Amino acid sequence: MIRCFLLSSRCFFFESFSYGMYFFIASTSFMRDRIQHGCEQFKEGKKMPYKPKVPCRHPGCPNLVPAGEKYCSQHQSQHTRPSAERGYGSRWQKARRQFLGANPLCVECLKCGRYVKATVVDHIIPHRGDQILFWDQSNWQALCKPCHDHKTMTEDRWEAYRY
Fold first, then answer.
1. What is the per-residue pLDDT across 88-138, written as a single tens digit (0 to 9) for each?
2. Which domain holds residue 10?
3. Are both 136 and 74 inside the same structural domain?
4. Would 163 be classed as within a structural domain?
5. Domain check: are 140 and 105 in the same one?
6. Does residue 88 sit in the same domain as residue 75?
7. Residue 126 falls within a domain, yes or no?
8. What is the number of domains present in the chain?
């Protein structure tokens, strides 16, 4: 089966389901031949379909958002606040620098016998906006970026967001 779409006055888009092919045609004479040989679904002015909507990336949210966006309007504010507004301002940057100066190696890599420079100060227990837990240095650990990303995706990922 072949579906035809008119993109402009001289450019057409064909979609062939039997061969899994997509191709553009810029010749009107070729288009007339295709219409005569079984392209019944061709209608002038038919537009290309939009990308389908995708689920909101906030855990447990069933809302759909336009393709290219990550969060619905209900959860957008929770995920796009500036870092300073979430507590990572100049005070944090100074404390982070001092902590990494005192703890220069990644603690997870040290467990495996590797000596890798730490670049991230990780909260062992995610603070989720709790300022007491945020500033508790016993809740901090020095990690390299790959170890921090791995920890965040495996341990911190499924916790409910509470800001």
1. 889 999 999 999 999 999 999 999 999 999 999 999 988 878 889 999 999
2. 2-36
3. no
4. no
5. yes
6. no
7. yes
8. 3
User: 34-67 burial, b for 16+ CB within 10 Å, e for fewer?
Assistant: eeeeebeebeeeeeeeeeeeeebebeeeeeebee
Residue type, 82: P
**Distance between CA atoms of residues 54 and 47, nearest Å:** 21
Per-residue HEC secondary structure of the chain comes to CEEEEECCCCCEEEEECCCCEEEEECCHHHHHHHHHCCCCCCCCCCCCCCCCCEECCCCCCCCEECCCCCCCHHHHHHHCCCCCCCCCCHHHHHHHHHHHHHCCECHHHHHCCCCCECCEEEECCCCCCCHHHHHCHHHEEEECHHHHHHHHHHHHCCCCCCC
- Taking only the tens place, the pLDDT of each residue in 28-49 is 555 555 555 545 444 455 566 6
In which residue are the tokens 């590797």 written? 114
Model's pTM, two decimal places?
Answer: 0.51
Name which of 92, 76, 89 is nearest 163 in CA terms: 76
The 10 Å Cβ neighbour count of residue 15 is 14
In the block, tokens 């290309």 appear at: 48
CB 90 within 8 Å of CB 96: no
